[in-house]
Every structure is written in structure tokens, then in C-alpha cells.
Specification:
By secondary structure, the chain is an all-alpha fold. The chain has 2 helices and no strands.
Amino acid sequence: MKVPLLLRMPITLKEWLTKDAKERGLTLTGLILSILNEYRDQMKGANHGSKN
């Protein structure tokens, strides 16, 4: 299930992310989801063995 999420960011950040997304062949939403999933995976690895 997907839920809507509104992000407010400086225009310069949006422009930079949009440019990066296009270079990778992604949409802005796809890039943001990719970044968030990578962060989640890193946090899982950092917390490996903990009860969290």
C-alpha cells in the first residue's frame, strides 16, 4: 500500500535532485524512494544484532 507524502524543500535542492534523477533515468519520486531505501538498509546494517 502506498500513501501520499508531501515534502517541502528549497528550490535549489529540488533542482539538484531532479537533475540527478534524470541523469540516473529516474523520476524525482523514484530517486527519493531509492535514497530512503538505501538509508533504511544502512540503518538495519548498523543496528545488526540490536533489539530495535
